[in-house]
User: Fold this.
Amino acid sequence: MNPDLDKLHPYPFEKLAQLKNGVIPPANLEHIALSIGEPKHTAPQFVLDVLRDALPTLASYPQTRGSVALREAIVGWLNKRFEVPEGSLDVERHILPVNGTREALFAFAQAMVDRTRDPLVLMPNPFYQIYEGAAVLAGAEPGYLNCEAANGFMPDFDSVSQQTWQRCQLLYLCSPGNPTGAVLDLPTLTRLMELAERHDFIIAADECYSEIYFDESAPPVGLLQAAAAAGNDQFKRCVVFHSLSKRSNLPGLRSGFVAGDAAILDRFHRYRTYHGCAMPPHHQLASMAAWADEQHVEQNRELYRQKFDAVLSILQPVMSVERPAAGFYLWPLTPADDTNFARRLYGEQNVTVLPGQYLSRDSEQRNPGRNRVRMALVAGPDECVEAAGRIKNLIEQW
Assistant:
């Protein structure tokens, strides 16, 4: 057995199940789950139609690189969405389709980390636990960068020592952030590229929430966009991860892509040819249709806006909660310990939220998720409003 398996922490939802164990919620209230970031909006029908009509393509093995047509669709979307100059991204060198970004984010560390050099993998804290597990099973030490309210829920990169940067081999970013919704700006991304060049590490930017935002005139900036703006037209040391799960409400399609530094992707592709993870051909055709359409994405954002407006109007009078810059999570302070709040909310109101400390690790300062909970506004509008009303009731009875 790989001894590093014993270093893995229980997944947050395992802890949540233990927390709820033995609690019997009121039978007269339907359960509402705000704990899992699984989109519940309707999947685009035109994508489902393509998926169904493409079933005969299952007669052929797909290529690990995916079809040229899919990579062309991805490049077209990146050029338009992130203002990447035409011709900068080569479909043969800079794009690699993946079966959802979760597996790609994990696999990336296995391919990139040199375990012979006492590797360190840095990540935001709180974080998506795949980053940590990927680091551990690649033989690296996870390093946690606290994301506190005082710094806009972004890591304080200026406080990281030169020794830490020098030891770092891989930096995971998540912008917009899970669970905070914080968005890294262009100057910060530019500075991180400079640090990566100086200290020889790779930036892996998880941008899976980039298409859920509130101001149509100010979409979140991306790492490739920052690279192009800084003159890094080879996207050196920069790799981004995108998905159709949140953007297009297609979590079950398991479709995304990795894009960026051609030399890095060449090595990652070599790893993946052995990994055996080519995207099924009918998923590729459905993905092409989704990446080519923005109307359903704009409608998706509008529905999230409506839900945030309604939920915040109920919760802000009774708890400390702010609209995030992007994404579909709320990250409020709780009136007591976050685990006690979550357990009592389930037991008295039959609403499930995720304690913030389950998404974070203790640091010398503190656990930055403690006394916060993550609420995923993924359910329908009526259900989200009902959940907000129950949370308000609990707080007023606290």
Remarks:
- The chain has a mean pLDDT of 97.
- The chain has two domains: 3-42+296-397, 59-293.
